[in-house]
Design a protein that fits this description.
The strands form two sheets. Strands 1-4-3 form a three-stranded antiparallel sheet, with no helix packed on it. A two-stranded antiparallel ribbon has the order 2-5. Helices cover about 65% and strands about 5% of the residues. It is mainly α.
């Protein structure tokens, strides 16, 4: 049975509101990539708030029509199941339940609770699955906004030809993005928009990372290719005489030419971005689709008159592979592929291997969305200096944070979507709609391959575009254009607002929209207060009062899980205590006691963060609580054994207490895990607590550079004979260097 998309005639006001809603979604979609992919908190908030606002306006649109209309789809329920599961990870659970789902998570929570109890803090016995609830809440809000975007695109663009208009918008904007990326790269000064510095050092287009620029183009390239094949097919239907390539020189062949040029620019720009993951993903998808064209399913192969379509697809995909091969041989791109197994590739493999190790401890439910940054140091094997914020693979990180249960729900969503699309494609006979759908599937497949090697779904603009392409794929296989107008092939529920059921659904929708907007607002206000605190020139004078922490207190009030605010508060008190010096010992103890209270609250909210435990160790050391300091430092190193800065802080704490041997050992470990650290600085620190050169030597490697620095250091302290001895050894070392400098 066919269900007409428009249903009864809309009122003029309702029709205008529908167009406004469609324009709002398009605006969000095309603006999102421009501010660096919308990775900053302010832009994430604007996307989320826009989704809440558009949902409210959609409800108003339905009320104006006297009923609520929604497509009847199993996919909606599966998405809701995923959101419900993610919300459950934030709910406190009794120990026996948490122990079943996450034994290691329970151990970490109970250790934190026992530490809080030792310091006289009240601690509950129920804990959430997530080890970083504040981060989890932020991630859940983002995923909910993506789900709302998918829902609104399906409900608002199933009317008339609006889905094809959105398809064209993405192709045009993707082409513009490709051209901009090429122009900026050609006349680049290393800055985004020729103005903004990039921390990653590999910006391309408006994105901070060239891989994410490539990911965005992957999504629009498939649409362009799909529409190209569709337009060639339409040309052949309109001009049956002649071969499949007649459009090349025919006066009515402008549309295929335009789309071919758009695709060409996107491929050139994607390759020029030097994203190996992006190019490999494009090649892999091209091979898969080419194989499908060569060896079609029996039902497809049985159709007559479709061989030209398969030949066209195969020729186009072969051209893509050939073009990428030619570009890869260019002087600029070739070195990138010659170093395919460089340090960056090695880094990725190491992060994947370490991340998968966490699955042994958190197999069922993971450690909570957003917990990777804090949890990964526990399993980190390398000594990379940069902080690892993502697993360099969306699938690895998703499984690590949500467990195999979260992965199963994600696979269920993908399989439900694919099953519906394939089922509809089997029934569609018109080449135009099929080509558009295959183009969208090409985009989705390319991004899905790329996500094995990168974290594109953590870039809001790319996630939104991926969701939009999926919705477009769903729409083009479900909208049938006939003589009586566009018809939507999936059943649409019509719930009258005059019925009790309609009232219940309306109230539920209003409550959901209101709750979502309220959570988005409070989360953003909490982050905003934190940001204002970090930007302000804030100093504690005299004996600080709680009122001086107004911004941090506001951050805590708006987000009770905001562990970052408590950590910032603890650091401010610790700094004030250190400024007191020996003369202000009473003030110092006061400040450190306040710092201890604040850092314990941060630990309560994120017990897996090693930096919080290290801060507790420093603070307790300042308060001369040696046993509690040792316990905190050891737990911090259990959570991040390769963190050289924690080893350094623990070493200084031990030296301050007189444990010279163990303290120097920790400083030596700090040097090992911080390769570029200043040796002279470490020697000076150690010399404050001991005059024994035998202890100093623990920090020195058997290299020419270290021996030179050590000899100069000895001479500066009047140990000229020992310095001369080291210099003689240095001469021998320079003639026959040791194979093992450490």
């Amino acid at each position: 049975m066919l269900f007409v998309a428009e249903g009864p005639v809309m009122s003029a006001g309702s029709s205008h509101l529908l167009r406004a809603l469609q324009a709002g979604l398009v605006l969000v979609l095309i603006v999102a990539p421009l501010p660096f992919g919308s990775v900053q908190d302010d832009w994430i908030f604007q996307i989320e708030f826009a989704m809440g606002l558009l949902l409210g306006l959609w409800i108003l649109h339905e009320v104006m029509n006297g009923r609520i209309r929604m497509a009847k789809m199993r996919l909606y329920w599966v998405i809701l199941a995923l959101l419900a599961y993610l919300l459950v990870t934030l709910a406190p659970l009794p120990p026996f339940a948490l122990g079943i789902l996450s034994r290691e998570g329970l151990n970490l929570q109970q250790f934190a609770r026992n530490t809080l109890a030792t310091h006289g803090h009240q601690a509950g016995s129920w804990f959430p699955i997530s080890l970083a609830p504040f981060e989890t809440k932020g991630e859940v809000l983002k995923i909910a906004s993506y789900a709302l975007f998918f829902f609104l695109v399906l409900e608002l663009f199933r009317h008339g030809s609006s889905a094809r208009v959105l398809y064209v918008v993405l192709v045009v904007f993707g082409t513009s993005m490709a051209v901009f990326g090429l122009v900026q790269n050609m006349w680049s000064n290393g800055k985004i928009y020729w103005r903004f510095e990039s921390a990653s050092g590999t910006p391309f287009g408006p994105f901070v990372n060239h891989n994410h620029f490539a990911g965005y183009l992957e999504l629009t390239l498939g649409l362009s290719l799909g529409m190209f094949v569709a337009e060639v097919g339409r040309f052949r239907e309109q001009h049956p005489a002649g071969g499949a390539t007649r459009w090349i020189w025919h006066k009515d062949g402008a549309r295929p030419w335009v789309l071919l040029i758009c695709s060409f620019f996107m491929i050139i720009s994607l390759t020029a971005s030097l994203s190996r993951g992006g190019v490999l993903s494009l090649l892999a998808t091209s091979v898969v689709f080419a194989a499908a064209a060569i060896f079609p399913a029996p039902r497809v192969a049985a159709r007559r008159g479709r061989s030209y379509g398969r030949v066209l697809v195969l020729a186009g995909l072969s051209a893509i592979v050939l073009l990428i091969g030619i570009l890869a041989l260019s002087p600029r791109v070739r070195p990138r592929w010659e170093g395919a197994f460089d340090e960056a590739a090695e880094y990725r493999v190491e992060v994947w291997r370490d991340s998968l190790g966490a699955l042994r401890d958190f197999p069922v439910t993971g450690a909570g969305l957003g917990s990777f940054r804090s949890l990964y140091p526990r399993y980190k094997s390398g000594n990379f200096l940069s902080e690892t914020t993502h697993a360099e693979s969306d699938y690895v990180q998703w499984t690590m944070e949500t467990g195999f249960l979260g992965l199963a729900l994600l696979v269920l969503i993908a399989s439900t979507f694919a099953r519906h699309v394939v089922h509809r494609l089997k029934k569609r006979k018109d080449i135009y709609s099929r080509s558009l759908a295959y183009g969208a599937l090409f985009s989705i497949s390319t991004m899905s391959f790329h996500n094995f090697m990168d974290f594109n779904m953590h870039i809001p603009s790319n996630a939104l575009t991926m969701v939009c392409v999926a919705a477009l794929c769903f729409l083009v296989v479900n909208i049938h254009g006939g003589r009586h107008g566009a018809q939507f092939l999936t059943e649409v529920r019509h719930i009258s607002l005059k019925s009790a059921r309609g009232v219940i659904v309306l109230v539920a929708l209003l409550l959901a929209a209101g709750f979502f907007v309220q959570q988005v607002w409070t989360h953003h206000q909490s982050l905003r207060s934190m940001d204002h605190w970090s930007r302000s020139s804030f100093y504690l004078h005299g004996d600080p009062e709680e009122s001086q922490f107004a911004l941090l207190n506001e951050a805590i009030r708006q987000g009770s899980w905001n562990d970052r605010a408590y950590f910032a508060k603890a650091m401010a008190y610790e700094s004030a205590g250190e400024a007191g010096g020996i003369a202000g010992i009473f003030k110092k103890n006061q400040m450190l006691e306040q710092a201890s209270k604040a850092i314990l609250e941060a630990i309560r909210r994120r017990p897996v963060e090693a930096l919080y435990w290290a801060a507790l160790g420093r603070i307790e050391s300042g308060l001369m609580n040696e046993e509690q300091s040792d316990q905190a430092f050891r737990h911090a190193l259990n959570l991040a054994r390769t963190n050289g800065w924690i080893h350094r802080d623990y070493g200084l704490s031990l030296l301050y207490r007189g444990d010279i041997q163990q303290g120097s050992t920790e400083l030596a470990l700090a040097r090992h895990y911080i390769p570029n650290v200043n040796l002279r600085e470490f020697l000076t620190l150690l010399a404050k607590y001991t005059d024994a050169p035998g202890v100093w030597e623990n920090l020195v490697y058997h290299t020419a550079e270290d021996q030179t620095i050590y000899a100069d250091f000895l001479a500066s302290r009047g140990l000229n004979e020992l310095a001369a001895k080291i210099r003689k050894e240095l001469q021998v070392l320079q003639t026959s260097p040791s194979p093992n400098p450490r």
